[in-house]
Amino acid sequence: MLGFLKRPIVLTTDINVNVVVLTGVGLLSRLWRLTYPRAVVFDEVYYGQYISFYMKRVFFLDDSGPPFGHMLLALGGYLGGFDGNFVWNRIGAEYSSNVPVWSLRLLPALAGAFSVPMAYQIVSELHFSHCAAMGAALLMLIENALITQSRLMLLESVLIFFNLLAVLSFLKFSNCQKHSPFCLSWWFWLALTGVSCSCAVGIKYMGVFTYLLVLSVAAVHAWHLIGDRTLSNVCVFCHLLARAVALLVVPAVLYVLFFYVHLILLYRSGPHDQIMSSAFQASLEGGLSRITQGQPLEVAFGSQVTLKNVFGKPLPCWLHSHQNTYPMIYENGRGSSHQQQVTCYPFKDVNNWWIIKDPGRHQLVVSSPPRPVRHGDVVQLVHGMTTRFLNTHDVAAPLTPHSQEVSCYVDYNISMPAQNLWRLEIVNRESDTDVWKTILSEVRFVHVNTSAILKLSGAHLPDWGFRQLEVVGEKLPRGYHGSTAWNVEEHRYGQSQEQKERELELHSPTQVDFSRNLSFMARFSELQWRMLTLRSDDSEHKYSSTPLEWVTLDTNIAYWLHPRSSAQIHLLGNVVIWASGGLATAVYTLLFLWYLLRRRRQICDLPEDAWQRWVLAGAVCAGGWAVNYLPFFLMEKTLFLYHYLPALSFQILLLPVVLQHVNDHLCRSQLQRNLLSALVVAWCSSACHVSNALRPLTYGDKELSPDELKALRWKNSWDILIRKH
Amino acid sequence: MLCATGRLLAATTLPAPPRGRGSAPRCRRRELHFPGHSEQPFCDFLAGRLTRPSVLRARRVILRRGRMPPATGGGLTGSELRARRGRCGPQTARPASRDVAAEAAAPSPKRSAVSSQRLEAAGRWALLALVTLLSFATRFHRLEEPRHICWDETHFGKMGSYYINRTFFFDVHPPLGKMLIGLAGYLSGYDGTFLFQKPGDKYEHHSYMGMRGFCAFLGSWLIPFAYLTVLDLSKSLPAALLTAALLTFDTGCLTLSQYILLDPILMFFIMAAMLSMVKYNSCADRPFSAPWWFWLTLTGISLAGALGVKFVGLFIILQVGLNTISDLWHLLGDLSLSLVTVGKHLTARILCLIVLPLALYMATFAIHFMVLNKSGPGDGFFSSAFQSRLSGNNLHNASVPEHLAYGSVITVKNFRMAIGYLHSHRHLYPEGIGARQQQVTTYLHKDYNNLWIIKKHNTNSDPLDPSFPVEFVRHGDIIRLEHKETSRNLHSHYHEAPLTRKHYQVTGYGINGTGDSNDFWRIEVVNRKFGNRIKVLRSRIRFIHLVTGCVLGSSGKVLPRWGWEQLEVTCTPYLKETLNSIWNVEDHINPKLPNISLDVLQPSFPEILLESHMVMIRGNNGLKPKDNEFTSKPWHWPINYQGLRFSGINDTDFRVYLLGNPVVWWLNLLSIALYLLSGSVLAIAMQRGAQLPAEVEGLSQVLLRGGGQVLLGWMLHYFPFFLMGRILYFHHYFPAMLFSSMLTGILWDTLLRLCAWSVASSRLARSIHVVGVLSLLLGTAYSFYLFHPLAYGMVGPLAQDPQSPMAGLRWLESWDF
After folding, report:
1. For the residues A667-682, what does the mean pLDDT come to?
2. Judged by CB atoms within 8 Å, which residues 632-651 of A form the interface with B?
3. C-alpha to C-alpha distance for B31 and A367, rounded to whole angstroms
4. CA distance to partner chain A, nearest, from residue B630 (Å)
């Protein structure tokens, strides 16, 4: 206990000067003149607006990824005291003085800088030589594309950082496993693996690929562990449990936590509200909640309501009607009922109000006490402004001929009786006696005579329908679909019996007090679902590219051009590194297959431990490259060169590994080794040279003459901007 | 083992009792041995991958010295190798000697035992016959009803008629299935005159039973195939019977087999491939023997069939491929085989599983193109060169000038499928949509408004004036395209296009050919040198707008009504080379030039094959679900969430509803979960080195190996659908459903055996097994009795009505029958 009295306290530390130096150089390369250019560069225009939203606490929805990455960038803004007042609308716009450019770009730059020493660590944790590790770090340091990407307010470098951290901590953990399981550092590295995996996923969904890779390597290790008969059953169980908690539970919890913080931070309504359900919107401050606050919860007979379509595609809209009727004969010669049009209208309007009427009574006001509407009740819907009844009948709808036309009934006295009874079905009810609730209930209106269901067809009506959306009665409902469900958004108990008074009442806004009644999990699941299903139009982009062009670096992206001079920033890789990276992957794959087949015939070219090392290095580096690259071939969204960078960072790790392997196992004589070393030196210096040559395009700090720019256009497909004078 | 294959051979060609009877006892004996027999490769497999026993290392040392040890080589290794190698030789001899032994034994006092074995063999035959008979009986029962077109019969029946009439059409699936339907129709006397317009149309006097009967015939074979596959995988009769019952009594499989559809044909080939793969796996101990070759070849043929019907056939190819790779991996690891032998194995598989199917697959296409030689509704989907093959098409036997010259009247076709010809007409873009100038669109049909005159950009003189010499248009020339009917020039400017906002608008501008510099386009041939002439049909050309530098293309989006729902034409500032911005010249009229016959330009067979595949793949990708439509999701399928209406809606109609028998399907679902559970428990126990009793060991081998193979089949036929962007239907699940029923058969039999084993008394054990299997069999049969109206058709009130025959059977609200 009192040992320190007897013995002096001695602290011994190992400082790996290499790591320190690498960190230093990394920082230098990424932080140097970080505030230059003081203008919006490429995708900063995209991320910047979200940072502003965070600063102003305004809710937004971005389908490109979970919010953790955006929050990290916003943290930079917060530390720099950014107030969010900047209009992010144009690439190249000068930053105003209130934008703390340095602190906004600091985090990605730090992440990029720390990737350099981490590359060193990973290669040495894979039990390759110190020299190979230095090589990996050097390549990471001089790779132009990585430098460009990490010096700007973008997320790729942070993603790469967490990818590498996940791999590094997993390797540290599995090395701990060999000598002292369950020790403190074992736990630390295990937990860090889980945490960094979930951070990677939290930044971009692409991080999932690395997470899966780590999981599968861990699963293989665990399977070996199960087969290890020296361990007791309890011990094996503890091992498995620890892994399951750290690699499955912790990431899941953290992931939800990101959303929790996100939703806590963003409590004001904003421009993306419309995509969310009414209930979600009502939980935000301002916006819909200002209208819906304090309105009665239970819809009763005599209620005045607006009905919003739950699916809301192509546009969020409300059930609507107006004085105009369907044209007698459509352009294609079909006839209509010529009754009053019923549409779905994407704007708030007094014509969106409907009154829920009990078919048995003539009252259009709420009785006291109010009589709530329940699941299964038959109702009539009366249009507030025209007092006509919602009706459908066996007439083909204007644009969707296999569905029924929906109209507000006008009696032309032509033996076409009104069919205006609708049975109410509450979709998300808990029991059959449930009451129809404002905002929360999703209801379907089933036509009593024809069992058609009121549905938003999604088609735009022609000019006679003012380009509003078509509403039809679906005769063949095939299960539940959001386009047949509606929810009450605005709601008040109707008081006025007379039409004139009622119109006045409808024009006045609804008012009462405010409650947030949506739980976090409900909000989280809705947000998550919308993020995954939101399909943005795949927009063409001048600099979009296909995965095949990435490997050969046949494409580039112009990030920024100085408004006056020819200084410019490009996302452009180091050609030597990319080419040799691809070569190394091919060599690794061929060698691996060769060894594998020979081992199957019991011919072992490599000693067992070298083989194990070779396989693990391949699984991490070549596997990391493959999982981060190949899935892009299946994706249908617009792709850019920067999507390749995470894969590239793994490929860079593979390069020195392959070189060392060639040196150790394939070079048979000293002469060959010397030759190889000379080759490596030459290759390294050419990589450095290329990196230096491309430096002006990476940092954008130097004006180049048109001739110099032309000289840099090594490939015809590179788009380097040359000013015409 | 010969007996096993012999029996199967007999099974497929029906009764051949003498051979079967003699060989059956041997099968039986082999079966009893089977746990030990199958243990070997499995452990090898585990050992090879996970733990490397030190024995191997010792052997390796020897092997390094000389790879093929001499036969006299000393020590354990040598003898072991010799012994193993010897197995190949005497193997063939052994059955013969056993045969002799059996013959000799026959008249001995053990006659009663032998005769009981014979009886058992006869029983097996009877069972197989019963299963087949039942399957045929259920499939052919009330096949002629309803006497109208049901669901997709409207497509596939129509396509069958196209083959009979030899008119060209386009479909997203490869041709084999429809060709077979057409053939069946042809042989049964159908003359191809029925229009197959829409579901519900009465067949009247047209002969449709031939086509339905053919599909039902193939569909009936699924059950014996599944029965034999399971029998071979599990060596257990109850498992096979259970599988057969599940499939026979499944209303979904039944419905799907009774109509003119591709699915029964597809499933027939899938199951045939699976069965022959399993059979050939069980011949593995006698490689290169006749049955081995037979089953291997049959696998290849079935694979070609499956792929030739639908691209979904790729999944079974994947399964056979994986199986083959693991097979070869084992052979490679077997050091008693020389590399030459391994090479032979490899070559045999490449021949039978790659070369043969590929040849057959291409042959089906060759027949397809040969049969369909008349112009038909599919022409527009294909390139101009392709159309010139079809008699009746205006490009057939046509002759046009070969090189484009100034003054020629041309039509310009977009290279992308289903976009059509560059078109303009006397209508202006409406107010507010770009400049109010004449519309330019693309149009799929042939029309006078598709004609353009190609002119020099700087002169308005008529190049057709006989006094001028002919001047050819060359790659890189600057030209003007004048619309023949309206004399306006193709024009573009910095206004946004009507639908694709990032592109520029394309209009017709100018009066009688006089416009401005925005009418100038540079014509470029893709991948050619400057100065070359431009060939009709063959050259892929781009039009680059001189002032803005954008490229003429079509976005493929449909214009609103003001544009007559033709497709939008834009000028795209993105210079990426996509098919949307590549065009070719189709019609070409120039009186000053000599015409050449287009036959010279006819594409070769590989080109046609490639083109039709591109078109099919694009067609498949084009089948995207619309936002506001109800679409079937893959997760709906295994839970039998919702069926498909084949025929009829209202209570007066004859209604057929494609829905799985819920009892069968939910049992299948449960079985997959149970399988995963029990399989992982067993695998972990084995990995932990638990000592299992011999019986359990044997059963777990069946579960892990046989069940594993079937589970893989299920996964391969199900999970890829989650990745597909195209519109999906419930019936896509049925191939996977076949596999999951086989899994259920294997699993329940094994589980019941395990249960029975855990009970001490042998009589009780036996009765547990028998009762269990019987109750499952009877349960499915009873549920079929309940649900059979779904498949055989029902009339009368809907299920909500208590009067309905289906009252009380609508267990899920989402079922609408």
Report:
1. 93
2. 634, 636
3. 81
4. 6
